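R.M. (postdoc): so does anyone remember the format we settled on? I'll just put the structure tokens first.
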């Protein structure tokens, strides 16, 4: 008598039940047969399991969560998911390293990506940021070139410090971010112990059509914790997945990490009077002038069931806005509005939003059609053109129209992003916040990398450090064994 089997029956991808999981051969020792479609299907699927790696932010960890509004911000934005204190919205957050490939160690010194998807009733809002409030460049023309310096030398296929420092030394706007990267906050102890920032300037629009500029901040409620270089090296030697392991097990055990979501707000008048270009990605807005305003609490409370389907295929677009939240004249943000969407079309296909982790939780009604893996569930038999006179066909609603931008007398040109910019004051201010021991560690880390670059690159970069703070430049020069007087002469500075 055959024992009853309560387990589900294995099937092919077409749903045909499978009786045995052995190859079909001509005799026990014979060759395979082409008619073994079960084996062919398995091999063909295996050959296609991998999708292209992200060029940037390749290695990531993710989790689902809940965002809860704690403060009334309707005076700034009409976004429906923020319109009521206590309102909850489902979210998905993906952390990542920026430069490292998928096999990189979690505990490497690198910027961390902080990409957050809100599944709101008015569509998905994606806040695609980092764990730093600034970035290395302000002109999108430099972005791809910068990323190349963080990857591998095209000849040696090795990470190359000369490439990195050559670029940084030729782009002094990178100094603020370089100082953060090599500071004691350069290696987070876990993904639960880092802040998230939108970094860019965005716009908020209220029900009256009034616009303010804003920056987004997610402050960890677990506290900032970081590793020193020796700690990180020890961790990497033991486990290359430290951060992913920590996040997964914390959530599985019910220790749900939380962040306080805040905004900074700037009016157009304040923007016109601000010391720096408020849309410059290499600059912060001082909290003393633009204090944080609490919006709500983000909690991560559910791990994905399948890493590939839900984390590797998660797609975030800075262009995914909802009514009440929009872009700004930030040049880097403007470029990202296209770039991120384009990379998902390449990696995942034109219908990538049909993948559950990317799928809006509200109805989607448009005239975008077809392409690979189209399901038609959004449009069915509706017409594929607009305007049309068909019953039930979607139409625009004027109440969602954004107010016009008043940019004054605008000249369209290719402006030099390096001219007439102060790239040193904020980096120097940050350096002066560090205590003496922190300054020395920072100088040692930078000298360790910069020392691998050519002498001319070292001299060029040292000039930037001196312009930010003379002690900053002096410490690094001494650790490099460089004549300080020569650097000061090249910088045009004199000892007080």
């Amino acid at each position: 008598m055959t024992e009853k089997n309560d387990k589900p029956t294995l099937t092919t991808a077409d749903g045909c039940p499978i009786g045995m999981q052995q190859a079909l051969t001509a005799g026990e020792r014979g060759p395979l047969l082409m008619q073994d479609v079960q084996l062919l299907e398995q091999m063909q699927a295996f050959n296609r399991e991998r999708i292209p790696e992200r060029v940037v932010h390749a290695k990531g960890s993710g989790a689902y969560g809940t965002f809860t509004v704690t403060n009334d911000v309707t005076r700034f934005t009409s976004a429906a998911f923020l319109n009521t204190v206590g309102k909850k919205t489902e979210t998905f957050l993906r952390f990542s390293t920026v430069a490292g490939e998928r096999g990189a160690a979690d505990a490497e010194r690198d910027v961390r990506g902080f990409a957050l998807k809100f599944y709101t009733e008015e569509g998905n809002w994606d806040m695609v940021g980092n764990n730093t409030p600034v970035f290395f460049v302000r002109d999108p023309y430099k972005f791809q070139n910068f990323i190349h310096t963080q990857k591998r030398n095209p000849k040696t296929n090795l990470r190359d410090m000369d490439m990195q420092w050559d670029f940084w030394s030729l782009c002094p706007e990178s100094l603020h971010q370089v100082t953060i990267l090599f500071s004691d906050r350069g290696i987070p102890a876990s993904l639960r112990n880092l802040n998230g920032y939108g970094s860019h300037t965005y716009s908020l629009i209220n029900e009256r059509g009034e616009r303010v500029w804003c920056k987004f901040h997610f402050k960890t409620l677990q506290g900032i914790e970081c590793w020193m270089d020796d700690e990180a090296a020890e961790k990497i030697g033991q486990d290359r997945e430290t951060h992913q392991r920590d996040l997964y097990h914390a959530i599985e055990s019910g220790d749900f990490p939380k962040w306080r979501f805040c905004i900074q707000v700037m009016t157009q008048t304040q923007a016109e009077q601000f010391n720096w270009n408020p849309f410059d990605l290499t600059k912060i807005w001082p909290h003393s002038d633009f204090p944080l305003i609490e919006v709500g609490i983000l909690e991560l409370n559910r791990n994905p069931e399948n890493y590939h389907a839900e984390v590797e295929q998660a797609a975030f677009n800075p262009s995914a806005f909802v009514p009440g939240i929009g872009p700004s004249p930030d040049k880097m943000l403007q470029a990202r509005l296209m770039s991120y969407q384009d990379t998902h079309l390449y990696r995942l296909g034109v219908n990538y939003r049909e993948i559950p982790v990317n799928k809006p939780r509200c109805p989607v009604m448009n005239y975008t059609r077809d392409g690979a893996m189209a399901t038609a569930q959004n449009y069915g038999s509706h017409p594929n053109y607009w305007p049309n006179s068909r019953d039930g066909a979607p139409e625009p609603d004027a109440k969602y129209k954004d107010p016009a931008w008043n940019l004054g007398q605008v000249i369209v040109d290719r402006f030099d992003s390096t001219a007439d910019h102060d790239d040193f004051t904020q980096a120097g201010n940050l350096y002066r916040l560090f205590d003496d021991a922190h300054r020395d560690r920072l100088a040692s880390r930078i000298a360790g990398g910069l020392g691998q670059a050519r002498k001319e690159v070292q001299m060029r970069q040292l000039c930037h450090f001196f312009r930010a703070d003379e002690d900053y430049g002096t410490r690094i020069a001494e650790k490099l064994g460089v004549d300080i007087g020569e650097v000061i002469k090249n910088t045009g500075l004199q000892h007080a």
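R.M.: ...and that's the designed sequence above, right after the tokens. Also worth knowing: The chain has 14 helices and ten strands. The domain at 60-136+189-360 is CATH 2.40.180.10 (Catalase HpII,  Chain A, domain 1).
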